[in-house]
Design goal:
- This protein is 27% helix and 24% strand.
- A hairpin with a 6-residue loop joins strand 3 and strand 4.
- Strands 1, 2, 3, 4, 5, 6 and 7 form a seven-stranded mixed sheet that branches.
- The mean pLDDT is 92.
Length: 196
């Protein structure tokens, strides 16, 4: 007899992140959407781990259930690791992926060293307060211009080192899920979870 799937309330309201996490965890976890009435959880941490835990704790407390959250940052060497923990709001409020990408490309104009990495931290907060976390990194470079129509966030400007020169936005979801930062965080997290 197989063990039932672990049920986790997903803290993210980002549909794309939820789709990626569901695709990567579906054989061991049943993801439940976050309660709509929860509202926005403010990311007040100074690290990706702190923000992931803040979000997971808020959802776990509100839903009285185990919750999973992630926080992801793009770290660009020529910008001293920025935008990092501020990646989603790099260009300020209101949050805009297009404005974030435009500002990143503007800041890197004329810069030769375009090395960067995506980092994702996943955190599970159990109803009893136990925290499980794992992280994943994907090294790459920032393209000179946006390329591709898939993905979200900075995908159209990030070229993974493990790929063939295409940006994440030029890859299919399946291709991206073999090498992305989120996929690597999930692989690390899976090692910490019971298997069904």
């Amino acid at each position: 007899m197989t063990q039932p799937l672990m049920v986790l309330v997903c803290a993210s309201a980002n549909v794309h992140k939820v789709e990626e996490m569901n695709a990567l965890l579906q054989d061991i976890v049943h993801l439940v959407p976050r309660p709509a009435e929860l509202g926005e959880v403010h990311e007040t941490g100074s690290t990706l781990l702190e923000n992931a835990v803040i979000k997971a704790e808020a959802v776990a407390a509100f839903a009285h259930a185990d919750a999973i959250a992630d926080d992801t940052g793009l770290e660009v060497d020529a910008l001293d690791g920025a935008p990092g923990v501020w990646s989603a709001r790099f260009a300020g409020e209101p949050q805009s992926d297009a404005r974030n990408r435009a500002l990143l490309l503007e800041r890197l104009d004329g810069i030769v060293n375009r090395s960067a990495r995506f980092r994702t931290v996943l955190a599970i907060v159990r109803a009893d307060g136990t925290v499980i976390h794992a992280d994943g990194t994907c090294n790459g470079t920032i393209a000179l211009a946006e390329r591709g129509d898939n993905g979200f966030g900075y995908d159209s400007v990030f070229i993974p080192n493990d790929g063939d020169g295409r940006t994440f936005a030029e890859l299919s979801s399946d291709e991206k899920n073999t090498m992305s930062h989120r996929a690597r965080a999930v692989v690390a997290l899976r090692e910490l979870l019971p298997t069904p």
